[in-house]
Amino acid sequence: MTKFLTLAYGIVCYLVFFLTFLYLIGFLANFVVPKGIDGDAIVTLPNPFVVNLFLIVLFGLQHSIMARPWFKQRWTRLVPAAIERSTYVLATSVILISIFALWQPLPYTVWRTDAAWLQIVLWAVFTSGFLIALLSTFMTDHFDLFGLRQVYLRFVGRMYQHPPFKVIFLYRLVRHPLYTGMFIGLWATPHMTVGHLLFAGGLTIYVLVAVGWEEDDLVEILGDSYRSYQEGVPMFIPRPGKVHETIRSGEAAPTRMR
Q1: I want to staple 166 with a disulfide (CB 3.0 to 4.6 A). Which of 14, 197, 250, 252 is the partner?
Q2: What's the CA angle centered on 54, arms 72 and 130, to 5 degrees?
């Protein structure tokens, strides 16, 4: 693959994921997009619960297997290393798009609030969750996370190196603000349905399991620096009035949703 095609491929993969991320927000909010999570209550497949659960498991398998070092070592024998991350991002987008298309609405109410002021508050919390998730990617290396840095370095003929270990802003409060933001976005809603609960619960369980594998990889890459970081900073929920002090201010830990 030529340098130009590598760069173009990385940009396309990034744009596809960005649009998919925006659709995810509309999907959960049942807003603007053609089909929301609670779409039309028309069951088109025999067992909608099983279908939805299968889609969540499929997402988890792709997201975890393709992120494991043993898979990447074998995968990069088939595809150039420079587009490994972009391909991972594209595969994630394809799985999410499949979920949007095949999701079977289960619009039975679990909880609901009709108070206008509380609806506004919950939608504000929902929005803030996705903003936290997005902003947290810029606090490490947004372009490395989504594969653009890799294809750019290939384009200019420079060697790729893993981004430095640093702890800034939200990463001084929690180790995984990206996941914290996603949890908020998944669960904050004025109308929780069975389908939404299944989606939010399934992805939450997946993250809680997969983050352990991710941290094992980070310890292997970063060693004692990350072990010290683990000891001083909680995973998802900040400790009131406390920030990490054992690592110099201005350093931060990388986190990836993979």
Answers
A1: 252
A2: 70
Residues facing residue 111 across a β-bridge = 192
Instruction: Quote the CA–CA distance of 87 and 93 in Å, as a whole number.
Output: 10
Radius of gyration for the chain, computed over Cα atoms and rounded to the nearest angstrom: 19
Q: Which residue has the tokens 């679990």?
A: 110
pLDDT digits (tens, 9 = 90+) for 233-251: 999 999 875 555 544 444 4
Bigger pLDDT: 159 or 257? 159
Under 8 Å CB-to-CB from 80, ≥6 apart: which residues?
1, 6, 154
Angle between the N-to-C axes of helices 3-29 and 148-156, in degrees from 0 to 180, rounded to the nearest 10 = 170
Q: Which residues of 235-246 are buried (b: 16+ CB within 10 A; e: fewer)?
A: bbeeeeeeebee
pTM of the model: 0.89
Partnered with residue 167 across adjacent β-strands are: 251, 252
Q: H-type helices in the chain, by residue range?
A: 3-29, 48-65, 69-75, 84-102, 116-138, 142-145, 148-156, 177-187, 194-222, 224-232
Residue 148 in contact with residue 83, Cβ under 8 Å? Answer: no
